[in-house]
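Record Charged multivesicular body protein 4c, 171 aa.
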Amino acid sequence: AALQALKRKKRYEKQLNQIDGTLSTIEFQREALENSHTNTEVLKNMGYAAQAMKKVHENMDLNKIDDLMQDITEQQDVAQEISDAISNRAAFGDEFDEDELMAELEELEQEELNKGMRDVRLPSVPSTSLPSRPGKLPACHFTFLMIKPCSSTRKRAEDEDEMKQLAAWAS
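=>
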């Protein structure tokens, strides 16, 4: 009896596996049919959309559309010109000559420049005369060779700083 029960169990397991495989196949087929139906509906709706667009575009002429767009552009330009004309200052009170105003402006700028130049401190001119030959320069001028720079070298560095400041101010 136990052997018979074991055989029945094996048969039932085999039938269960077959039924499970059959159900899986049916499920796959059902999904494929649903997808096919969805694809068919999509294609049908795309066809309807194409026909509708064709009907809408039947009455449209590209040349007419181009002409319409040019008309719109021209009207926008006219509107801009009108807006510019309205927003510009009226010519009332323009009794000043443009050349006279420019001359006065240049004069004021020159005065400002002259005032700024008065405040500039120029470096002092060296009091020693230059030697006639390059070999007779004082030893303190060769500061890059010396360990201690001479006092005139420090003065020259200060003068160079002042010249840099002047150049920066002028530019």
